[in-house]
User: What shape does this take?
Amino acid sequence: MKCAAYLRVSTGQQDSSNQLPDCEALARSKGFELTAYYTEKGSSWHQGHQPELARLLDDLRSGRRKYGYLIVWSIDRLCRGGIGEIFSRVGAFTGLGVKVLSCKETWLDTDGPTGDLLLAITAWVAKFESTRKSERVLAGLATARARGKVLGRPPGSKDGKPRHRAGYLQRYAGVKE
Assistant: This one.
């Protein structure tokens, strides 16, 4: 049976290579042929910022690729948006005939109401963990500001590449295309 792996890290500074051995081991243990890797670098909170996930779904919908299973390192790699979002994501794959397996949540292989309950709990925990982390970061930034630390770029610093004006900025500046 052919399968694909979806690997995701939250930032460009992280590397998904630590997820790969577990995904490959799970595929081997099930007797699957791991034929494709979809690797993402970006937050799962930002919709539309998961082009590899979109490409995977597009490959499946168009019939270009056929997989019986999708292996993820952890279910929160698919999303951290809570119960509704994870059921939507897993349901999209199920509707395309693809079963989602997780290296860290082996119980996800359980069908029926027990699997649904455990998936819901895990989705809630992932969202809670992500929200709590955001709260800690914002609290740390507020504390730094209160202590007089200047956040952001130093005055006068510039990007390494020029910024492109687009959309309303072009119209505001009167730029004609």
User: Anything to note?
Assistant: The chain has a mean pLDDT of 81. The longest helix spans residues 113-146. The longest strand covers residues 33-41. The chain has five helices and four strands.
